[in-house]
Amino acid sequence: MKEVTLKEIALELGISITTVSKALKNYTDVSPKTKAAVLKLAEELNYKPNSFAVNLRTKESKTIGLIIPEIVHHFFSNIVNAIIEKAEKKGYLVIILQSNESEELEKKQIDLLISKRVDGILMSLSNNTKNLDHLRKVIEHDIPLVLFDKISKLLDCSKVVIDDRSAGYDATEHLIKSGCKKIAHIRGPLNPQNSIDRFLGYKKALKDYNLPFDNSLIFTCEKVSFEEGYNFAKKIYTEHKDVDGIFAITDLVGIGVVAYFNEVGIKIPEQIAIIGFSNWFMSSVISPSLSTIDQPGFEMGKSALKLLLKEIKAHKKGKEFKFKTIVLPTHVIKRNSTFN
Amino acid sequence: MKEVTLKEIALELGISITTVSKALKNYTDVSPKTKAAVLKLAEELNYKPNSFAVNLRTKESKTIGLIIPEIVHHFFSNIVNAIIEKAEKKGYLVIILQSNESEELEKKQIDLLISKRVDGILMSLSNNTKNLDHLRKVIEHDIPLVLFDKISKLLDCSKVVIDDRSAGYDATEHLIKSGCKKIAHIRGPLNPQNSIDRFLGYKKALKDYNLPFDNSLIFTCEKVSFEEGYNFAKKIYTEHKDVDGIFAITDLVGIGVVAYFNEVGIKIPEQIAIIGFSNWFMSSVISPSLSTIDQPGFEMGKSALKLLLKEIKAHKKGKEFKFKTIVLPTHVIKRNSTFN
DNA sequence: GATTTTACCGAAAACGTTTTCGATTATGTA
DNA sequence: TACATAATCGAAAACGTTTTCGGTAAAATC
User: Fold this and answer.
1) How far is the CA of B16 from the C1' of D2 (A)?
2) What CA–CA distance (Å, rounded) separates B142 from B315?
3) Which nucleotides of strand D lie within 7 A of protein CB?
4) Number of other residues whose CB lies within 10 A of the CB of residue A319
5) Each residue's pLDDT tens digit, A11-42
6) Which stretch of DSSP H or E encloses residue B257?
7) Cβ of B19 less than 7 A from strand D
8) Phi-psi bin for B148: left (phi > 0), alpha (psi -120 to 50), beta?
9) Which nucleotide is nearest to B56 (CA to C1')?
10) pLDDT per residue over B192-214, tens digit each?
């Protein structure tokens, strides 16, 4: 099936390629008559501009790159959902890549996106990313970049985040107000800012409510998995019988915790209260349902994309663009794993 | 930041663009000496071919399109996961679009992908797609197309599926062997082949085991949601007290069912046994855990992509390609919502 | 009637690559 | 020495579009 080009329309109509192109783009210097003729024939022949040629000529691909740690995650798939939907409406397509929490892969994928010449990059850092040179490369290449959720404060670009510190504070405070006196925290990996901030929020809440901070009540996930939640719960139960509250870095971990206590017949929240983080759908249907912090994935994706498109637009016009950091609000969702 | 081109390398080295290009592509008609010089300088200048130009010249984008009903679904995000990972390894990038179960959107997105000139399209049909003209258009455009999971038998292309009929049979049979005498089926929408086939499998199993088929025990989801499962469970409980088994079209619906019976204190599986479909992670952590049919999303994505790449390759060489249909095996996963 | 303005059109360059085909030089053979 | 062969290179076309700039003819102005 031969694709129809400007040339063919021009030939058929006995006019130049230039005029055809202009007619289709509604230039003022082509008469209404020829304009109409071109439009009509283009419609008939079902002309579609060759995007390869357009890309080359205009130097833009109307495509943006998206790198996330992994897509099989309720939070991230929600973000992806928002981004591709919004992007499409604005005439952009989205290329998605997963870093699988590997700094090396992340580097490779940045290179890929640069060489594909995407118009902009949206990204959430991998947990293990320490060196940021590949991201600086993006900025040096003059490719608009917006970071979301897992960001680095060291990078000079726009960002969309929640206030993990205050959210961690809220979660802990909720446990305290729920009557807990000795609260353990199953935290995320050591590197990412997220888990650091949530941990800091936890610490601050303890302090504000005059509860002692005990480092032996801090448990550090590597994978942030169900199994880790389950195992740490077991550890807490056997080694710290008097712990009466657990703040888990994420719902998946929290659900592991719930599963363990259900199994050994410990009553939630009577004997131990639990709060998670992120508000996965799952948390609302397990029993007891898991209190959590809502993390507005869809909103985050939307804001990040909006910011990126603005920057792309400014960039195209050669205008200065001032980086912004958007902090999205979160709140505690009270369910049956805590008293309220 | 100016991008370096073949021209600049040629200029610097005092040779022609042609030779530079050939050197980089390891043509035999360029001397080892110049080849080395070009390679060296290209490395130094960090030359990256302009993919827009390459696309235009080679008429391929090394990009494939992927359309799914919605990404926020454990099954689909798993498929996406497999596809983008495998694709990247083979040098392809993936553009993802969601139909949101709308035929109209699906059409628009097909048009988008065609006009973007992707090298191939991977797709799972929306539940509401009845007219297939947009898919025929893909085939007419000579763009390799592979359908997976939600397919149409009317379309002449490669497909990757599970045998929903026999899987539905297995699910029902498992309930029967679990001791159920009166089994309700909460089925999917009327249109998609999947839910038809699972329903047919259910019917066949009843017949084979001499259980009467009762149309009033069939409930039809529209959204295939948690709420529908919950509400149909309520309906079943109030209107058909003697139903002792439920086969739900998908785990999410099954979890709704479980939630309702938990709420009203009906014992699962003693008073009523429940089986879902798809094996979402969630099903393993709720209580009681939900028996289900595993639906190998990752495998499905992998197979579909493999098939597509083969077809793209054949297509590029102008070779004939014989469409294949791959049927992936499924099996019953026995958990605590059924006796085993 | 002469001049300016307006309306309309097209030639051509450019984007950066790939590839064909012919040209040139060096090497080998008789 | 004369010729054939091999090795190495480059000119040029092509992919299809966008946009600049200049040109012509018609309309408007004086």
Assistant:
1) 33
2) 8
3) 7-12, 14-22
4) 9
5) 999 999 999 999 999 999 999 999 999 999 99
6) helix B251-264
7) yes
8) beta
9) D15
10) 999 999 999 999 999 999 999 99
